[in-house]
Amino acid sequence: MTDPSTSSGTGTATVTIAIDGPAGSGKSSVSKEAARRLGFGYLDTGAAYRALAWHVLDLGAETSDESAVQDAAERFPYAISLDPDRYWVRVGDRDVTEAIRDPRVTAAVSGVARIPAVRTRVNALFRALVRDSGRPGVVVEGRDITTVVAPDAPVRILLTADPDVRAARRSAELQGEDAGAVATALHRRDAADSKVVDFLTAAPGVSVVDSTDLDFAQTVAAVLDVVAAGTQTHTQEMHDGR
Ligand SMILES: Nc1ncnc2c1ncn2[C@@H]1O[C@H](COP(=O)(O)OP(=O)(O)OP(=O)(O)O)[C@@H](O)[C@H]1O
Ligand SMILES: Nc1ccn([C@@H]2O[C@H](COP(=O)(O)O)[C@@H](O)[C@H]2O)c(=O)n1
After folding, report:
1. 21 annotated to bind ligand
2. Is the ipTM of this complex over 0.90?
3. Considering only CA atoms, which residue is closest to atom 7 of ligand 2?
4. Is residue 7 part of a domain?
5. Looking at the domain assignment, is residue 91 inside a domain?
6. Quick check: is 5 in a domain?
7. Can you give the pLDDT at residue 232?
8. Ligand 2 pocket: which of 193, 194, 198, 200 to mutate (most atoms <8 Å of CB)?
9. pTM of the predicted model, to two decimals?
10. Residue 7: per-residue pLDDT
11. Cα-Cα-Cα-Cα dihedral of 55, 58, 64, 70, to 10°?
12. Is a pLDDT exceeding 60 seen at residue 185?
């Protein structure tokens, strides 16, 4: 039987590093840097939900219209780069890397993420992207990676931070936007998303990295420490045939 914590499309096993967390917890920035340091790929799973929300809006529909979302998901020409140094997202021949961060898309994205058929479809895509990555490992970040997409990953991390700290970091990023409105939007999205999957508490076996009192470099170092410990145990288990 194949080891479910690794995947192989090319004969070379790919190690999955699974990272979940709420909005603004640092998942994308920290995972991208960790991937660079490890020489791994980086998979931003939220980008698929964002790109589908963008696609639905671009077709003139609303993400609250479940059948419009399902129709769009069935013909969704999505592509994403797993290179942490050359990150891009495309829908057909449109580069939507920037467009999917637009507040209009951010406000609409939970509407597509709540549909179980959409989740099943994109989860299969994520597993295929990891399997076919041709890389020794991929850092995969999102909301349900540790629990649904890759529950057998050798390293599973819940990256978290105090809600006010997350809101302040996001607000610092979005210069010129009202800090109160940014915080409200962030908390509203977490509330909607956490009705669908639990990314606020760590599932059994998942390590918590709380960055509330850590700067960016310290957070990356804390994640890499968990990765080192987890991959060492995994290698030993493989060696022992467990
Ligand atoms: N430990 C840290 N200290 C200070 N700033 C941080 C830290 N971690 C992340 N940041 C900053 O916080 C902001 C939010 O991080 P990031 O976009 O990576 O979060 P995210 O979890 O991917 O958010 P979302 O789910 O909304 O996409 C970024 O500006 C990032 O540089
Ligand atoms: N595994 C995931 C990842 C994301 N989502 C949904 O996508 C939205 C955008 O994610 P970001 O990480 O880019 O902020 C997020 O708000 C969720 O609605 C998800 O459901 N599962």
Report:
1. yes
2. yes
3. 46
4. no
5. yes
6. no
7. 76
8. 193
9. 0.94
10. 57
11. -40
12. yes
